[in-house]
Structures are given as structure tokens and as C-alpha cells.
Amino acid sequence: MKISVKLTAVVLSRAVLVTAVLATAILAAGTGWAEVVPGDVIDKSNYQKIEGLVPDYIVKWVKEGDLTMKIGKLTYDPEKFLRPEFKEKTNTGRYKIGENNILIDLKTGKKNPHPTEVRGFPFPEPDINDPTIPAQLLHNFNQTDFITFPTHQIQFWYGINRRGIEKTYEVENQLMVFDPKDKYDHGIISVFKKPFEMSGTGSLALYHMDPLKRGIRYLYVPSLGRIKRMSHRLAGSETPLNSLVAGPDDFWAGGPRTAYEEGKYTFIKEKDGLVPYYTSRPGKAVKNEKGEIFLGYAKTGEKIILGCETPEWNGAPWHTPETVWIKEKVYVIESISTNSNYRYGPCQGWVAKKTFLPVYKRITDINGELWKGCYLNIRGYETQDSSFRTIEDRTALVIVDLKRDHGCVYVHGRREGAFYSEHKKGMNKALFTRAGFVKFTR
């Protein structure tokens, strides 16, 4: 009874915060005093133009000279870069959101069906009058991940202060979606390569699609020389091993991404927004004879450029100067976690309507004060013959801790020494066991 009362109090107090933060954010957004058009350059001299088209922290950065925005026009149609199964609308009316934000297949009656059984977006035509639309957007987003598995990548994250790159994190990841008959639905192996003091530290996490089913997680720390079993779900608001790296939930516009039964959502509205794209042109993709897809630097030679590497850039060093901002329709949602251990308070997220990709996240602390702001650069990718196309929001994630005045940039596999491959052939499922994981880390 005491636990129930405590949890209820936490939820109610956080609900009050949601209302207060939402009101503040809406008032701060304004409506803008002029129309932005392709070719405009927005800086501190004319920052009022973007009010209402971006979250308040973006306006703050521009007003203070940390960010200059180039309003652009794409050379391609983002919707045409959706993979074929995501262009289809055959799932319209097939799925619904149930209790705890779970996905229910109305045709089969299954709850949280295996990701291989869901073809394309579960909700290709969400209704803004449906109060479950934020959870629909979450399931749409999660499904875009599973379609890329098995995935193998070496990625980089950069901790950046006002002087430039402070620390580089290099991580090798292997991601697998298992067969429906297997014990778990999907798994993730992550092992640090850099910095030196974290080298060899890694984790193995095995998940069920049903968040209420118990998964498993192991952590290996070389200095201890042994495997430690941990809670199968870590709070997505945590930064791993006290690094500057953004927490897992920062890749999603809402609250808990894997523990989605703990997320309480409110749909705010559909509106015009400025969506960040990494350049106005699509990037390169390579497809080999096995059907494997490569999007990283190792195969394409394409590199994300940081502000601290751009002599003519006068803004904060953690921004991406090649970003262009495109006017599109967006969905705006509010979220809060019911978990008293969650480090974030109310969050406001913006999701691009055309692609269902998250593009902004406004993060507050547990007291409702603005803590972090982030934007995710969208980019389409295609092979030279255009036989394969895809679009993603992780070309570059920029997240700024406003309290510490530090930035973090996640560049996926698009830097020297990194790579990114999808539909990896011959990935060893034995790695996704305790014994296999130990062998991999060494």
C-alpha cells in the first residue's frame, strides 16, 4: 500500500510539472513575426523569424549567437526515400494501442507482435484526434530500427566543450533480431574501444517486445575481470558509465523508449516546423552482392563535419554547420515517466510528419527546469543506381547540456575509422549468449 501511494504521488506531482512546462513551452514558442523562405540565414539579428517553428532552446541558441540556421530546400522528396514496406499503407486500421502503450494486432489478437511480423509502419495514417497518437509514433519509430537488423557498426560520440572536442567515445555495436521461436525477440551488444580507460567495457542486453516480460543484461568490466548481471532494463535517461554520451532515450522524442509502459503521453498539436536535415542532398549508400547495406564512412567516404572543425563557423563548437532547416509539418508531444528513478522530468518532442522520425527533444530535470536540448539531423541515402533508398534521423544527433554548457554529438558511422552495415550476413547468434559475449569483449 505504501509503495502504491508513493508511486501515485510521484505520478501526480510529475503530471503537475507536465502542465506547467507545457504552458511555458507553448508561450515561449510564440508564432513568429515573419515567414522564413529557402535562402534565409537566421542569426541573432533576425531570430524572431523562427519563433514558433522550433523549440524555445533553439531560439535561445540563435539569439545568443551559438547557432546560425540556413533555411533550405531539399533536392529530393523524403517520402520517396522511405523503404518500400514503409511506403505501403496496408496496416491502416490493423493495430491499436492497448494498456501500458503496448501494440495490439487486431487481426491476430497478438499483443506486442514480433517485429518481423509487422511489415512497415504499424500506424501509417495516425489520427491526431486519437489520444494514443504519441504511442503510435513510438511504435512507428521502433519499427524503423528492426528493419535494419542484423546490424554491425563502429560509431563515434564526441564530448565537446567550448574549446572543442573534449573526449572521443568509440563503440562497436552488434544488433540482432531473433526468430519468433527464440527465447528473446532482439539483442544488443555494445563494447567501448575508446577512451582507453573504458576500452573493453561492454554490455549484452536481450529484450522481449513485451516490456513486462523479463529480459537479461550483462556488463563486463575488464578491471574486474568478470561478468556482472544487471537489471535487464536500464533507465534510458542515464548516461552509460558516467560518460558525456547522451542517454538511450535521447534518440526518441518522448519518454522511456524500451520501458514504454512507464511513459505517460499527451498530444499537443500538429503544426509547421523547421526540420533539420544534414545537407540538402541525399547521402551515399552501398549495397553488395549479398544484400548488405553500407552507410558509413568506410564504404562511402562521407564525413560529418563539426563546428569546431569549421574555421568560418562562429557558433558553438558542437553544432553541425552543414545542417539545413526545411519547413515541414510536425507532431508535437509531451511525455513523462512514472518511474521515480527516471532522471528526466517532462519532455517535449517534435516528430516529422512525413517520415515519423523524431527531430527535437526538450528535456527538463525532475523539477521541470530546462536541462538539455537536442536535434536530430535527417538524411536520405541512396545507391548510385537508386535501386536502394532509405532515410534516417541519426546522421548526426546534437545534444546540449545547458546547465553545464557542454555538447555531445553522435555521428553514427560517419567519421574516419567508423563503419555502419545493415542486413549483415553471417552474424553469429552465439555471440548473444553469456559465453559468446565474454569471448567478443576479449
Q: Would you identify the CATH H-level superfamily of the largest domain? A: Lipoprotein localisation LolA/LolB/LppX
Pattern of helices and strands:
HEHEHEEHEEEEEEEEEEHEEEEEEEH
Mean of all residue-level pLDDT scores: 89
Q: Judging by the overall fold, what is the CATH architecture of the largest domain?
A: Clam
Query: Number of domains in the coordinates?
Result: 2
Q: Given the C-alpha coordinates, what overall shape results?
A: globular
| CATH structural fold name of the largest domain | outer membrane lipoprotein receptor (LolB), chain A
CATH class of the largest domain: Mainly Beta
What percent of the residues sit in helical stretches (DSSP H or I)?
Answer: 10-25%
Calculate the terminal CA-CA distance, rounded to whole Å.
47 Å
Overall strand count: 21
Determine Rg (CA atoms, Å).
21 Å
Fraction of residues in β-strands = 25-35%
